[in-house]
UniProtKB/TrEMBL annotation:
<dbReference type="GO" id="GO:0002939">
    <property type="term" value="P:tRNA N1-guanine methylation"/>
</dbReference>
<comment type="similarity">
    <text>Belongs to the class I-like SAM-binding methyltransferase superfamily. TRM5/TYW2 family.</text>
</comment>
<dbReference type="InterPro" id="IPR030382">
    <property type="entry name" value="MeTrfase_TRM5/TYW2"/>
</dbReference>
<feature type="binding site">
    <location>
        <position position="386"/>
    </location>
    <ligand>
        <name>S-adenosyl-L-methionine</name>
    </ligand>
</feature>
<dbReference type="InterPro" id="IPR025792">
    <property type="entry name" value="tRNA_Gua_MeTrfase_euk"/>
</dbReference>
<comment type="subunit">
    <text>Monomer.</text>
</comment>
<dbReference type="InterPro" id="IPR029063">
    <property type="entry name" value="SAM-dependent_MTases_sf"/>
</dbReference>
<dbReference type="Pfam" id="PF02475">
    <property type="entry name" value="TRM5-TYW2_MTfase"/>
</dbReference>
<feature type="domain" description="SAM-dependent methyltransferase TRM5/TYW2-type">
    <location>
        <begin position="198"/>
        <end position="469"/>
    </location>
</feature>
<comment type="function">
    <text>Involved in mitochondrial tRNA methylation. Specifically methylates the N1 position of guanosine-37 in various tRNAs. Methylation is not dependent on the nature of the nucleoside 5' of the target nucleoside. This is the first step in the biosynthesis of wybutosine (yW), a modified base adjacent to the anticodon of tRNAs and required for accurate decoding.</text>
</comment>
<feature type="binding site">
    <location>
        <begin position="325"/>
        <end position="326"/>
    </location>
    <ligand>
        <name>S-adenosyl-L-methionine</name>
    </ligand>
</feature>
<feature type="binding site">
    <location>
        <position position="287"/>
    </location>
    <ligand>
        <name>S-adenosyl-L-methionine</name>
    </ligand>
</feature>
<comment type="similarity">
    <text>Belongs to the TRM5 / TYW2 family.</text>
</comment>
<keyword id="KW-0496">Mitochondrion</keyword>
<dbReference type="GO" id="GO:0005634">
    <property type="term" value="C:nucleus"/>
</dbReference>
<dbReference type="GO" id="GO:0070901">
    <property type="term" value="P:mitochondrial tRNA methylation"/>
</dbReference>
<keyword id="KW-0963">Cytoplasm</keyword>
Amino acid sequence: MRILWRPFGFSRILFKVENYRICESEPLTSLAWASQLQKLSRAPGIFLLDQSKRFSTMPEIETDPRDSELFSPPSNVRGMTKLDRTAFKKTVTIPVLKVRKEIVNKLMRSLKRSALQRPGIKRVIEDPEDEESRLIMLDPYKIFTDDSFERAELSILKQLNVNPQISKYNLELTYENFKSEEILKAVLPEGQDVTSGFSRVGHIAHLNLRDHQLPFKHLIGQVMIDKNPGITSAVNKINNIDNTYRNFQMEVLSGEENMMTKVRENSYAYEFDFSKVYWNPRLSTEHSRITELLKPGDVLFDVFAGVGPFAIPVAKKNCTVFANDLNPESHKWLLHNCKLNKVDQKVKVFNLDGKDFLQGPVRKELMQQLGPLSKERKHSVHIVMNLPAKAIEFLSVFKSLLDGPPCSTELLPIVHCYSFSKDPNPAQDVQQRAGAVLGISLEACSSVHPVRNVAPNKEMLCITFRIPAAVLYKNQTPNLENHDDPPLKRQRTDE
């Protein structure tokens, strides 16, 4: 950023103005202060004959507060596909306030509303004409004349004997001074959607670009890296998530190609190769919500565990965890992250298809947990199924999964099953589809929690219910209309 002082108007013409001086030793009375403001607001601009002096005062900045183009990049960057940072230079005129350097800190606390806030721009700079003074850059959308200051601001200016007269200042903006959304809005074709958001996965910015943004993909990636400290790689998803291993193909748009990353979520650390496993930072709150539902001593079966965002926090609560994932890479990093977070002794890890996991290790453990001695058991059993695209289909595995006499209702496993829905009534849609797979009605005995909006008209939800004994045990007759279990209350958690 370069600071430019330039004369305004004709440098050889001097307009006659009254000269007002505010002395530190002579505090102004309220009446004198008001009179001073009125006179200053009527004073024409001062133009200097000496070309070496590049400072001009003015009572009014020639800036329309509705002019959103003031801090927009130059128009000639429109359509740029290869980033040229030098093309973003632009000079703007902004208001400044001259103050004594010893009162700057105290004054800035009272001028937060009025001070300029732009990336990479100092709000207080040296006065090239007076080493004992400083110039405070003001927001041109808020300060147009001396009268633009609010009453509280004028009061502090009066207390500190600061002349409220504002002055012109020529400020050269560069690429560093524009925000990412401003750059992309200026570059992309006018009227098209601008991508300025992304999912952050360690040092990686994960974008999901639309078709009209693809010609600008490399520029967009570089801007994301430039404008977000710590981001060194930008990638774009180029296909849908593979339902088998829950990963997707990605293209490196800009930056390094290293996809090995480390993230922290809810005080836990996870390491993995982002190109080979599933990780969604937007599910952080949901991971916490489910974790809060379990108490020490409870048992969790995580059918589609990924790299451990449900399993590890739950294990830290002194729960017993059985975690499974079909993806060999996820299985590898799940084992690694359990050791990293020191819960490897509390988590049993499997690399099986979800159906095989339910019919094998889960069934075996449930037979023990819900057996004849289950009446003495006080802990709960939870089953998490976070595979929104297909998890509901896996509910059929619970039908007649167990042998023997049913356990008491309060000991039956609680399922948290995730699903997508494009239905106008997504909660009812998920309840009906899950109930259809189980062969019962879940509408009166389940709760549905909205997780997040995935896309326009597409929601991700979690349906929670206790598996009815009539479904879970063999030789039972399920009631297709309903069953006698009371609906699960939506448990309150700190989100």
